[in-house]
Amino acid sequence: MSKKPFTRILGTGSALPDKVLTNAELEQIVETTDQWITERTGIKERRIVEPGTPLSGLAAKAARKALDDSGVSPEEIDLIILGTVTGDMKFPATACLVQDLIGAKNAVAFDLSAACSGFLYSLQVASGLMIASGYRKALVIGGEILTSMINWKDRDTCVLFGDGAGAAVLGVSDGERGLIHTHLGADGAHSKLLYNPGCGSLNPPTVENVQENLHTIRMAGREVFRHAVTAMSGAMQKVLDEAGIDADDLDLLIPHQANLRIIDAVAKRFSVPSEKVYVNVDRFGNTSAASIPIAIDEARKSGRIKEGDLVGLVTFGAGLTWASAIVRF
Ligand code: UT7
Questions:
Q1: Taking the CB of residue 309, how many other CB atoms lie within 10 A of it?
Q2: pTM value?
């Protein structure tokens, strides 16, 4: 039986770099083809920053847009959580830098590491803290500069990712609209299927480690694909069951934008027709924690999500981690 939501999304915003990297341009960098990338992933192009651009600026831009959209002032924000694995520095948390950039001086701020599940993890943690700590307004951001950890010689990974940020302002629900059911999951036994071995305490950034490209992404693509379909389907089923609704009742499904074949497989599992599935992986590639909030923002602003719509959100990423939510907008 569906429960009453406690928190709701009041406004959204997103920010993407201007620079477009097309499949044709990647053909000049690495041994690949537009045809392979399109057929195997659905990606046609992605947005990338100039090398050395920090995440904080992009995240703050998305945050300001979300604040404008919600009519909430920076001073009203009690809490900022930034889901990311590509913060400006190891510390301090990039959320603190964003807090300063946007003037949210009354907010506590921290980063949350759950890779591509970072935004939905952050959304649930923010919601839980609002219930437990009495915070009234939270800013939840998912943002990545994934190009900062790409090995441009590794065709298995470099064609997949892009940079971007998305944000949502969370407030107290009116009892009808909001986060109805959420689910989080993790399985560390498969952590080595998708990881960045370098720059942490395991492999500090010594000259040797950097020369061996330990600071870049490693992925066993085919296995990650298999886990992604299973975990995303399971996570979606869980929140549908808890909410006591059928997938048919959803007005829109927003899956993590990693690969069009994964999106199609999950949609097929729930018999959701393609017109009810949001896709922008063709334009932005996989932006990890930014993928879901960018899609929500685009869907709201283009009228794909209307007031009162029931929307399913589902994601999967390194950890392994996964997360899902049913939201009434
Ligand atoms: O965001 C969180 C999670 N990440 C994901 O969800 C990603 C999940 N995985 C995937 O999306 C897919 O597994 C990939 C897109 C990464 C790869 O697609 P695939 O259909 O699983 O291909 P594969 O890895 O099985 O490789 C098939 C072939 C291989 O050649 P051989 O061994 O068959 O001769 C690869 O070497 O494709 C080759 N290949 C490429 N060819 C051209 C791999 N990357 C490329 C490339 N261009 N960029």
A1: 16
A2: 0.97
